[in-house]
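COMPLEX REQUEST
Ligand: phosphoenolpyruvate
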Amino acid sequence: MPSPTNLESVTEITWPDLPAAQQPEWPDAAALAKAQEILRGLPPLVFAGECDDLTIKLGQAALGKAFVLQGGDCAETFAANTADSIRARLKTILQMAIVLTYGASLPVVKIGRIAGQYGKPRSAGMETIDDVSLPSYRGDAVNGLEFTPESRIPDPMRLVQTYHASASTLNLVRAFTQGGYADLRQVHSWNQDFVSESAPGKRYEEVAGDIERAIAFMTACGADPEEFRRADVYASHEALLLDYEKPMTRIDSRSGKLYDVSGHFVWVGERTRELDGAHIDFVSKINNPIGVKLGPKSTPEIVLALMDQLNPGKIPGRLTFITRMGAGTIRDVLPGIIKTVQETDHPVVWMCDPMHGNTKEAASGHKTRLFDDVLDEVKGFFEVHRALGTHPGGIHIELTGDDVTECLGGVGGVAEADLPFRYETACDPRLNRVQSLDLAFQVADMLRAR
Ligand code: PEP
Ligand code: MN
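STATUS: Structure written out below.
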């Protein structure tokens, strides 16, 4: 376990007044101040020592010695914050991680988009349905998904609710992953229900059988490593709502450094990464491992400036670039970005988000993604890295543990006509568990051939 550390509540961290994109317009300043005061007084959700451990593990991915799997909801919701839903997401992540670890013989760093992913940037400030226009849904941390004027009013007490929902999720994640559920001897049990009958589920059974035999062999030889008994699954979310992240930022009494204790890893999204904006300034000051999304319009100049600003100490694992270019664009844009980084001695983790550049609208109006586009962007990511001799360090996936019908295709063959059956996301379409497992097998094959 990581070393414990003291994290003091600090009310007096001053932040410069910089432009911040995508922030809610809270109608009541006094209510916001009250919510922030409550947040400042609440205990940390994560420890600085855990964040440092994750930086070290991500550093291995920056150096080509590990692979990162980051996955979870586009938008968590308070309503779906149930034991069943959390366990199903964890099962998906654990099964994918097993497939990747076994297939590629590389350590897999596991990070959930979980326990804090409650704020969403939106391309339009207003949403119109049947001639009625209301403020867009900005995540459960801000307003309600229900399309009514009352529900769409930003309510700062939702920030406090976000903290409590995240605390209960993280508590269960820690219990599951440290308390026996993630024990490698359980590999078979993660493959129950609908997934076990699918082609990737059957392929998984074979892997699980191999692992079980290997463990039996090791046990017979007298080896019983502690690492087999638990898994480290870290919590991450987009550092979007600065009215939440700032009161959750504390000074670590050990080192005197700032840590955002709302999650282990936080990233800055494509819509908020202005070099002179408040989000980049915020993550430049915290010592958590951080990510920045890079879309198809990213330039070498932007990438150089981000590295200098965010990782001047050139610490491996501190900075992850999460590229999300789109399947049709990645092979053209990514090489220039990688070459720019190669000309410096900056260590970065290269992660591929094959979701956000591949969103389409189905004829029914559902926002969807084709499994084949997702797969093709990952393939392009591996091809480019292979050609340039750099390490494809990880994947960043929107997924769920349930049998939803949100993304099209894959072995389960979700068809356009299936979209309405289980379209449950509060924001972007997610891979279901069969599609996620299918993707993991294909990525494991790519890693092996690297
Ligand atoms: C997201 O990760 O949910 C997201 C909004 O991504 P991006 O900033 O890359 O669009
Ligand atoms: Mn999303």
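REMARKS: The mean pLDDT is 95. The chain is about 35% helix and 15% strand.
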